[in-house]
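Support request, please re-run this one:
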Amino acid sequence: MNIVRLLLLAALIALSAGAQAKYNGEDRGKPVMPAQSNAKWLAECGGCHMAFPPGLLPAASWKKIMTGLDKHFDTDASLSAPDAKEITDYLVKYPSNRWTASSAPLRISDAAWFKAKHSSGEINPAVWKRESVKSPANCMACHSGADKGDFNENSIRIPK
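Re-run finished. Output below.
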């Protein structure tokens, strides 16, 4: 009887966690960082900024970003064709599930889920202007585990 109760409790906890993973009808349970990484992505993208986890943008966005590297946010981040293909393949293999199928934004901060978490009065707009933060694209300023895909709300530290 105790095993049945434990199994039932485990099932209820799993269902509850799944229900809490929903956000505006979108599944938030999928990790933003896959278990396997890509060294070229980490070196090339992470050489200039945090290598954003693939699960933060949909595949269409990653394709758009990777085909426009010569004008990558006002910087020429061009790569060789083989390197660009390898990185693109990695990014589109593990895309976000937090966007509508038709959207292909270039900025993570354009997402409704991002705005809900960062613009809903929880974050003072002046925070983005601090020298220690600079912009919403600097995830590592507040999320120390962002480079590993960890955006846990319990480990947020907003710098002065």
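Helices lie at 2-20, 39-46, 59-67, 81-93, 112-118. The first strand starts at residue 22 and ends at 23.
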